[in-house]
Amino acid sequence: MQQGGSVPPAPSSRLSPLSHEPAGFYNVDIPMDSTKDVKKKEKELKAMEPETNKREKCFIQ
C-alpha cells in the first residue's frame, strides 16, 4: 500500500487521440418570422388571454 495518497495512473487510462475528421457543423438558414406574422400571433394570443385567465382562476380555486 502506498503512502501519501497518490495512486499512479493505470497504463490503459490514456485516451486515444481523436481522428482528424470534420466536426460536421454546417450553417443552416432559419427563416425569421416576418413582422406581419408576429403581429398576427400577438393578436391571436391577446384574443385567447381572457379564456386562459378564466381557466387559471378555476384551477387555482
TrEMBL record:
Positions of region (Disordered): 1-61
Residue stretches of biased makeup (Basic and acidic residues): 34-61
Protein name from the UniProt record: Secretory carrier-associated membrane protein 2
Taxonomic source organism: Triticum urartu (Red wild einkorn)
Taxonomic lineage of the native organism: Eukaryota, Viridiplantae, Streptophyta, Embryophyta, Tracheophyta
